[in-house]
């Protein structure tokens, strides 16, 4: 297996921390900086050993305990892929923690995830969401809490991000924690319409969205 040009030989990040390099790479703007203490806490990694190949080496790479120059170019590419997957799965857990929610709130306020294209939403900020919890089952979508619609990212780089790296519960958790960001709902419920999806997927996604809306209402009602 030959590493694509995007990865190079691994020397691209040899002079800086892996996480800093990863966050600075084009296409990774949706991710926040997962704190080192969170990554090193084995409790937060429970179950991930079976999800990521070369788990320990990938973890060592993320935490800058691994020298990639000791490996062949092909092996470096494989380890880098594993490190990306591991960071993504850890990221999905981190953004549900108090510190992670705070970091994602700032990105939301800065509209780092884009703005809703619907006219009546007045450029309302979007939030990343995964329809599936398991990696490899679907890519990240963008959720507007005002019209409650899902959108595909505009950039191809973003549209290839695995949705499992954000999870299905993140938007609800963010709004439950920071209730002041919940927008006023329109008097008439917008007819579900999933922009950018194939027709046969719309019914399934509409049911998924209705389920998540009900779950969110239950969570928010408990805080009243």
From TrEMBL:
SMART domains: CK_II_beta. GO terms for molecular function: kinase activity; protein serine/threonine kinase inhibitor activity. Keywords: Kinase, Transferase. GO terms for cellular component: cytoplasm; protein kinase CK2 complex; UTP-C complex. It holds the Pfam family CK_II_beta. One of its GO terms (biological process) is regulation of transcription by RNA polymerase III. Tetramer of two alpha and two beta subunits. Regulatory subunit of casein kinase II/CK2. As part of the kinase complex regulates the basal catalytic activity of the alpha subunit a constitutively active serine/threonine-protein kinase that phosphorylates a large number of substrates containing acidic residues C-terminal to the phosphorylated serine or threonine. Belongs to the casein kinase 2 subunit beta family. This is Casein kinase II subunit beta. It comes from Nadsonia fulvescens var. elongata DSM 6958.
